[in-house]
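sorry for the late reply, my laptop died twice this morning and i had to redo everyting from scratch. anyway the thing you sent over, i finally got around to it. pasting the sequence first so we're on the same page, its 160 residues, then the predicted structure underneath. double check i copied it right bc i was rushing
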Amino acid sequence: MALDKTKILQSAESKMEEKIKALRGAIGQEELDRKEAPSAMESKSDTTKSQKEVLIRGLEEQLESMRLGLKALKSVEIAAKNHIELGALFETEIEETNERAVYFVCPYNLGEMNFNGKDIYFISNTAPFFKELKDKRAGDSVSIASASGRIYRYKVLSVC
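ok and here's the structure:
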């Protein structure tokens, strides 16, 4: 696997910063909407000031979680790994389908990103998928149940 972990990590940090910026914007809009929302006594609708406040608190908690995730992401060591752990870049193959995928373990689930023509899945080190693969090395296999209950056998092809 010839991928530059430093650049992948920088891309992940940029994506996380974009998500934080978008969330800040959403919070700002909700705060404006809250100012204009009628109080519970003034409203016959479901959108009252108190409901907006609950929504804003939830968004602020999500923002704090993302900030902590970004801080943790910036502290990820990119040194070569010989087993799956935080900061590992690894490739798997589902033995039943021969489908391959590349994953990067980071402190926050960032979804999928295309990097130099290769799809990379950024998975959280708290995700159940990661927990099943944690400490596995190239050549190891593990059976993992999908959300539908189907069991797949994943073989670790490489870890770096």
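Residues 5-36 form the longest helix (32 residues).
thats about all i looked at so far, will dig more tmrw
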